[in-house]
Write a structure and sequence with these properties.
single chain; 247 residues; alpha/beta; Rossmann fold; two-stranded antiparallel sheet; 6 helices; 9 strands
């Protein structure tokens, strides 16, 4: 005998090699699937930073609206971890520093801005001053009262405003505008109230809409664009909506 393998032994050896190759291929394919699923999960669970700017403390202006809204947002069921932080109306620079410190360029999450009164002005100011360096996914302003009247840098957003009273807001160019002037709702102590400047941020209807916008922005594959907002969702009965877009 020449000591070589018999045909049956050769067949058995080839079969073992084939099985090892098959197992290796399946293992590699499984690893590819796991890595892909991990990448998808990482994308959908990116951290979201929600900054809320309070208005200035003035007589008859309740300071409770923004803190209450912040607590509601903390309780939302979102597909991402979140940071919910309140800022004073003059702390746009502090927010920029916080964001730049927290997120490296490769670790960026979503950024949503919300503000009432002078805090709404701070949202518009932040987008103007820092929007090219820090991407803002969505901006929500509640009755801005200052000279900031444009939502710049192609940032999508919604602006609620009223023209009632001596102190009131205005439309914002580049945002989806919701005029609350002719609307009443049960906002305070279960009583019907017009949407005045000091009540807008306290109203449960508005808070619920804002919370829904936050959830939509976080859960969508991509934040809504200004073009998409040109066709707004159905308006709750009684709300008068006017859309103003940047030229």
């Amino acid at each position: 005998m020449d000591g070589g393998e018999s045909p049956s032994m050769q067949h058995s050896s080839s079969r073992r090699i084939g099985l090892r190759r098959w197992a290796g291929t399946r293992l590699f394919a499984g690893m590819v699937v796991v890595l892909a699923m991990s990448a998808i999960a990482g994308e959908s669970t990116r951290e979201v930073y929600i900054a809320l700017f309070r208005g200035q403390k003035i007589p008859l202006n309740s300071p409770e609206g923004i803190p209450v809204l912040a607590n509601k947002i903390k309780l939302l069921k979102l597909s991402a971890s979140r940071i919910v932080k309140e800022y004073e109306s003059n702390e746009a620079t502090e927010l920029a520093a916080d964001i730049q410190k927290r997120w490296a360029s490769s670790q960026r999450g979503r950024l949503i801005l919300i503000g009432h009164s002078a805090g709404a002005d701070s949202v518009l100011e932040f987008v103007y001053r820092y929007g090219k360096q820090i991407h803002v996914d969505y901006a929500i302003t509640l009755d801005p009262v200052g000279n900031w009247k444009v939502l710049s840098n192609n940032v999508p957003g919604r602006n609620y405003y009223t023209t009632l009273g001596l102190l009131h807001g205005h439309p914002v160019t580049g945002a989806e505008n919701v005029d609350l002037t002719r609307r009443q709702d049960t906002c305070v102590m279960g009583e019907q109230h017009a949407f005045t400047h000091t009540i807008i941020d306290d109203c449960e209807l508005i808070q619920s809409e804002v919370a829904a916008l936050v959830r939509q922005t976080v859960d969508d594959a991509s934040a809504p664009t200004t073009a998409e907002l040109a066709t707004p969702p159905p308006t709750p009965t009684g709300l008068h909506r006017t859309d103003v877009h940047a030229p």
